[in-house]
Amino acid sequence: MKIITLILAGAGFSLGLSALAEPQTFDFKDPKGVNNVVFKTDAPLESINGTATGVSGKVLFDPADPGAVKGKIVVQAASLTVPNTMMQGHLRSDKWLDVAKYPEITFDVVKADNVKTSGNVTTADVTGTMTLHGVAQKVTVPVKMTYLKDKLKERFPNLQGDLLVLRASFGVKRSDYGINKGAFEDKVSDDIELNLSLAGQSPK
Q1: Pairing relationship of beta strands 135-148 and 191-203 according to DSSP bridges
Q2: Predicted TM-score of the model (pTM)
């Protein structure tokens, strides 16, 4: 009986570890509309700053194994805005982003390297496939992931659960995505700086 009890206890312990190791799904469609991507181009004649708030996507994150992060972030191209309304119209037109034909900008996570965790904060070089203007490119992005256990209620008092906050800053070239390669670079730089500030929720 003791042997059977030990076997069953061991099996239960293993199952407990497996349950703890299950990754959580974090939803980045923010009901508050706070999640955003900030973009900037700094050309010789003009510096353009804008934001995109049409963010969604789901990320699988295991606080016990942050390096196994997977998922996809989606930005609605039509949510990209700049202060100048005429410039915004040009940005969304078929001459530039062509949001009618390419409505989504996506980042699919492939792997994470150089993973370092201290407390509830993990930094990593995340490699993924970024698709913009119908063109897919492999990019590696430095990402900061902050896991906030039981903090969902502080954003949404009626919900229980956890939060995953993502921060990332990186650059891309519009020419790599077939957006007016070599044209208008005195006003719209080829280099685009992106800053992501996103919070995903995992209700319980």
Answers
A1: unpaired
A2: 0.86
Q: Measure the CA–CA gap between 169 and 107, rounded to whole angstroms.
A: 14
Burial (CB < 10 A; 0-12, 13-18, 19+), residue 158, is exposed
Can you list the residues of the chain whose pLDDT is less than 50?
Answer: 2-19
Q: What is the set of domains in the chain, with CATH numbers?
A: 23-203 (2.40.128.110)
Which residue, chain included where needed, has tokens 């020419």? 175
The backbone region for 57, taken as left when phi is positive above 0, alpha when psi lies in -120 to 50, beta otherwise, is: left
Among 171, 170, 190, smallest CA distance to 179 is for: 190
Q: To 5 degrees, how large is the angle CA 5–CA 11–CA 12? A: 90
Query: Measured between alpha carbons, how far is 44 from 40 in angstroms, rounded to an integer?
Result: 13
